[in-house]
Here is the input.
Amino acid sequence: MLSVNIICIGKIKEKYWTDAIAEYSKRLRAFCKFGIIELDEEKTLRDPNEAGIQAILNAEGKRIIAALSKNSYVISMCIEGKAIGSEELASKLDDISLGGKSSVDFIIGGSWGLSDEVKQRSDFRLSMSKMTFPHQMARVILTEQIYRAFEINSNGKYHK
Here is the structure.
């Protein structure tokens, strides 16, 4: 069974977001071993300079890389990534599984994004949209899209 993780910076406190994520996580148990790994957000000054932002990205990036599953296929969520549809994500997950990988790690960075080191470690860069979403919402949307991908691949009725 494929193991799928979302590795993300920060924690979600609002119940409505955690409830939505919990629902899709529960549904995903039928298809994969699903987990969310929340890593600490780096402390930041109110208005950091470029060097401060780079230090934040590097510190968070080291924690992200340390959390990656061994030999996992890594998909980083980033604005410069490729925007794909639900069917394409389903096909990608199917190809990853058939290609011999036993785990997929999706990465959602902190408010400043992802370090270059994390982006270079990625096997695929995925953009959710050209729009900007709160990280909490992005996590809900990504969890739902992973569930939708598995439903598509199993010819389920969820995807219309």
Notes: The mean pLDDT is 93. The chain has five helices and five strands.
